[in-house]
Amino acid sequence: MKVAPLPVHETVGTPGQGLAGATLGFFIGFAAVSLFGPTAKSLKGIMGLGPLEIGFLVAAPSLSGSLLRIPFSAWVDTTGGKKPFLVLLLLSIAGMAGLFLTLHNYYPARMTPSFYPLILLLGVLCGCGIATFSVGIGQVAYWYPKARQGTALGTYAGIGNLAPGIFTLLLPIALVTLGLAGSYLAWLAFLAAGTCAYAVLGRNAWFFQMTARGIPREEAREASALRGQEIFPSGSLVESLLLSAKSWKTWALVAIYFTTFGGFIAMTAWLPVYWTSFFAATPVLAGVLAGAYSIATSIVRVGGGVLSDRIGGERAGILGLGIMLAGAVLMSLSRDFSLSVAAQIVMGAGMGVSNAAVFKLVPQEIPEAVGGAAGWVGGLGAFGGFAIPPLMGTIVKVQGTGGYATGFLVFVCLAVISLLLVEVLRRKRAGAPGFA
User: Fold this and answer.
1) Of the candidates 404, 395, 406, 163, which has an alpha carbon nearest to the alpha carbon of residue 272?
2) Residue 112 backbone zone (phi > 0: left; psi -120 to 50: alpha; other: beta)
3) Domains in the chain, start-ordered, CATH in brackets?
């Protein structure tokens, strides 16, 4: 039986449904960021990997997960979020399938150091799902009015960010019960099922539904505005990227997000190595501690979005970065297990508030190219997840075991720089002398 097409101006979905679909897609894709941390210790001994090689291994998913955000997020401005979402999730499925087959056939007896480049490549493919973040930012932002951006985007990112923490908690337990290959098979099944669910539930904002049916952009814009849509794309993918790239505010937000969200990804991947190597924790305990950090950061991000709507993105960012700075100082000085546990939670709380604040500022500061700006900020900002672990691994290589603590001075420096940048944005918005 043939289904009648929608009348030209009729649309489906509500902002709440658009938020729910995007959050589901991001949750599914983002789980990959936790995969290599808990398994790094297993591969380290078998493949004879050093600290620097481990740093690159745990960061591999973050490479594609950050860089692919740029073009895929800008793609949202031309077609809505659903197509970019599905392409990224399918690439992640391909990487996970390849990783499972490799481990199933060769781990552990035949897993030689020559497999290292292949594992890195498959990690890069798995990380494609992480790039869904910036796609979802654009998809959700087009659904909601500016006054509710902080809450909507904080909810989206906070719930989606729970995925690494949950899987960091579950993967060490799964390793014991299912084995390494079996654990990745279980995640592959979860990823495939989640992708199918997003294909059914994902919704583009009204403007994109209309233009997809051939309605002229101006007509679609007017009809969507009557329904309550406030933000609209300015042009093509390239135009969105170029327009947002011309604003210095985009690059300030990139640097801040490199510290907060890139740092979050780096911490999620690095903490299992930190706890097992510095405090000789068991892999299960290390996974629990890393998962607790990730979950706490994600939950705080939801509240950080609400806070950003109430006090403004700049003030929320200053508050969050100050808290993060205090936690990073404690991590770098602590040689006590309990103090380090508390310090990582403090760092996570600060990162959660700051992450929410950044994406309150994106549609506020670059409303004419939200997708392009979200791509630059989310993509280059998340690159911190790839860049920071090898840097910390280098510090360990130079200093020995003590480097696992002093390496957190990297976060101290990044937090100070980011605080200065948020203050510049605040003064610019307030029209302070020299910032008009």
Assistant:
1) 404
2) beta
3) 15-430 (1.20.1250.20)
Instruction: List CB contacts of 13: < 8 A, sequence separation 6 or more.
Output: 203, 204, 206, 209
Whether residue 38 is preceded by a cis peptide bond, meaning omega within 30 degrees of 0, is no
Query: Closest Cα partner for 126 from 60, 55, 72?
Result: 60
User: What is the number of alpha carbons within 13 Å of residue 212 lying toward its C-beta?
Assistant: 20
Q: What tokens appear for 278 in the block?
A: 């510095």
Alpha carbon distance 224, 211 (integer Å): 11
| Cα–Cα distance measured from residue 231 to residue 233, given in angstroms and rounded to the nearest whole number | 7
Residues in the chain: 436
Cα dihedral across residues 327, 332, 337, 339: positive or negative: negative
**Secondary structure letter of residue 435 according to DSSP:** -
Q: Which residues of 257-289 are buried (b: 16+ CB within 10 A; e: fewer)?
A: bbbbbbbbbbbbbbbbbbbbbbbebebeebbbb
Query: What is the pLDDT, as a whole number, of residue 230?
Result: 82
pLDDT at residue 237 in the model: 65
Angle between helices 15-30 and 162-201 (to 10 degrees): 130
Triad 329, 333, 335: Cα angle to 5°: 140
Instruction: Pull the structure tokens for residue 344.
Output: 């990582």
Are 60 and 118 spatial neighbours (Cβ–Cβ below 8 Å)? no
Contact status, residue 43 vs residue 106, Cβ threshold 8 Å: no
Q: Residues 88, 135: contact at Cβ < 8 Å?
A: yes
CA dihedral 256, 260, 263, 265 (to 10 degrees): -120
> What span, in angstroms and rounded, lies between the C-alpha atoms of 191 and 380?
25
In Å, what is the CA distance from 240 to each residue of 68, 82, 138?
Answer: 15, 18, 12
Return the pLDDT at 435: 45
Residue 303: in which H helix or E strand, if any? helix 283-311
**How high is the mean pLDDT in each 10-residue block of the chain (436 residues)?**
47 88 92 65 78 78 82 84 94 91 86 87 88 88 84 86 78 81 88 94 92 89 87 73 88 95 87 91 87 88 89 93 97 95 96 92 79 81 85 90 92 96 86 50
What pLDDT was estimated at residue 5?
45
Q: Would you say 429 and 314 are in contact if contact means Cβ atoms under 8 Å apart?
A: yes
DSSP tag of 369: G
Which residue's entry shows tokens 């200065």?
A: 420
